[in-house]
Amino acid sequence: MKPDLETLGRVPEEAVGSGEVRAVDFSAGSRYLAAGGTSGTGAAGEEEACVWDLKRKRKHRVFMGHEGGVMTVKYGGFGRIVACGGESSQVFLHDVESGATRLKLTPPTPSGVTSIDFSKYSPQHLVSACTDGTVRLWDTEAEELHSTLTVRGSECYQVEFSPVVPGLVGYVKSDGRVVLQDVASPTPSGALTFKSTQVTCMSWHHSGFALAVGTSDGRVSWLDTRKISGGADVAKCRLYDVQAHDGGVHSVSWQQPVPHSFQVENTPTRGDNIPASPMTPIAEKSTRLLQDDEPAPRPAAFAREELTLSKPKDSSNGVSNIDASELASLLDDAVEQLGSNIGARIRDVHLELLRQHQLQQEETARMFANIQQTQLEMAAEIAELKTALENRL
User: Fold this and answer.
1) Are 201 and 150 in the same domain?
2) Same structural domain for residues 305 and 372?
C-alpha cells in the first residue's frame, strides 16, 4: 500500500487455498517479500514459506519441509538467507538463491517459535523467542545453541536486537514484562511490568532510545529505554501512550529514517503541518542552533552603566566610588555564565556530530545491503535467462 492507503497490488492476484499468512518480511531493496503461515491442508512438509517477487507478482522461491505452520520469518545474511520458525520448534535457515535448506536449529526442549531476529553487528547470531518463555541465542556459523537468555515461564511473544547497542536484546512476555538483556549476561539489565495486561509486541526505535510496545487491551506505549531498570515504574519510563485499537495490538513498527541520498527538496520537515512528536531526537536542538538564521543570544553582558567608572570625587585622595570587590564579583559571574553558554553550545555540536556519524553509518550499511541484493537479483535473472535459452536450444 501507498502512504495514502491506496493499494499497489496483491500477491497472489486471487486467493488460493484456505491457508493463512502469519508473518512477512521485506528484503533490503523491498522487491522481494518473504511470507510464512499455514498451507491449509495440514499435511506435513507442505508449502508454508515462500518469497514473492513483487515486481513480477509471482513466487520467487518456495521453502519446503516445515512441519506445522510458520509463525515468523526474517531476512538475514545480507539478504541471502530467510529464517523461519513456527510450531515445529525448529528454526530453518533457507538459501534464497537456491531455495535449499541450509540449516535446521533444534532446541533441547520442543516449543513453538514465535519470533526471530538477526544481529546487525554479528550477522551469524540469531535470537529466538518461544511459547514456553525461553529466549535462545544461536550461532548459525557454528550451527549450535550459544546460550539461553531466560528460562521457562510465561510465553515470550517477540524478541529483537537493539539497532545501536551490540549484544543488547529486548523481549516482551505474556505476563506484561518488558525486558532488556545483554546476551553476555545471565540476568536482565532492565525490566518493567505492565499491570493487568499482556505486552504482545514491540519494536526498537532506530535511535535505540525508545521502544514501542503494544498490549492486549489495544494500547501502544513508547518507552524510554534509558529509564528501564530493575523493577522500573511504567509511568516513569513512558514517553507517550495512545489507545490505538479496540482489540489487542499484534504488531508495531517504526517508520525508518530516509537516507540523505533519497531525500528530495520537497520532503516535509518538522513544522510543515506535521505534529510534533515526543520522540524528537535530542540532536534536533543542535540542528536548530546550527542552521537557525536568527542570531544566537549573546552571552550575558554588563550594562553600560555597570561598567562606567565614575570619576573620583576627590582626586587628590584617589578615592573611587567603585568597590573593587563588587567589580571582581561581576566579572566572575560573567565569565562563569559565558563558560556555561560555550559549554552548552559545544555539547550541542558534539551531539550533532555523533548523530551525523550514526546516520552516515546506517546509510552506508543500507547502501551495501542494497548493492548485494541487486547483485543477487541480477544473478537470479541471468540464471533464468540462461535456463530459458538452453530450453529453446
Assistant:
1) yes
2) yes
> Does 214 lie in the same domain as 104?
yes
The helices-and-strands tally (H runs, E runs) of the chain is 4, 20
**Quick one: cell of 144?**
549450535
- CA–CA distances in Å: residue 321 to residues 303, 316, 324, 326: 17, 14, 9, 11
CB distance 276 to 270 below 8 Å: yes
Q: What is the pTM of this model?
A: 0.65
The overall average pLDDT reported for the chain is: 80
Res 13 pLDDT > 80:
no
Which SS3 state, helix, strand or coil, does residue 243 take? strand
The C-alpha atoms of residue 135 and residue 42 are separated, in whole angstroms, by 28
Q: What pLDDT is recorded for position 47?
A: 59
Please check the confidence at residue 296 and state whether its pLDDT lies above 60.
Answer: no
Same domain, 320 and 253: no
Task: List, for residues 40-74, the tens digit of each pLDDT value.
Answer: 665 555 557 999 999 888 999 999 888 888 999 99
Our measurement of the distance from residue 222's CA atom to the centroid of its chain's CA atoms, rounded to an integer in Å, reads: 13
Is residue 158 predicted with pLDDT exceeding 50?
yes
Same domain, 46 and 190: yes
Final residue in a domain of this structure, among 258, 274, 295? 258
**Whether residue 39 sits in one domain with residue 159:** yes
Q: Which residues pair with 130 in a beta bridge?
A: 113
Contacts of 266 (CB under 8 A, 6+ apart): none
Q: Say if 268 falls within a structural domain.
A: no
Note down the domain range covering 367.
283-392
- 73: in domain: yes
Separation between Cα atoms, residue 272 and residue 270, nearest integer Å: 6
pLDDT at 324 over 70: yes
Mean pLDDT for 93-122 is 93
Distance, first Cα to last Cα, the chain:
41
User: What residues form DSSP beta bridges with 73?
Assistant: 84
- Quick one: 47 and 151 in the same domain? yes
For the chain, percent of residues with pLDDT exceeding 70: 79
Q: Determine the 3-state secondary structure of 343 from DSSP.
A: helix
Question: 174 with 160: CB under 8 angstroms?
Answer: no
241 vs 265: CA distance, rounded Å: 33
Residue 5 lies in a domain: no
Could you tell me if residue 322 is left (phi over 0), alpha (psi between -120 and 50 degrees) or otherwise beta?
beta
CATH number assigned to the domain comprising residue 39 = 2.130.10.10
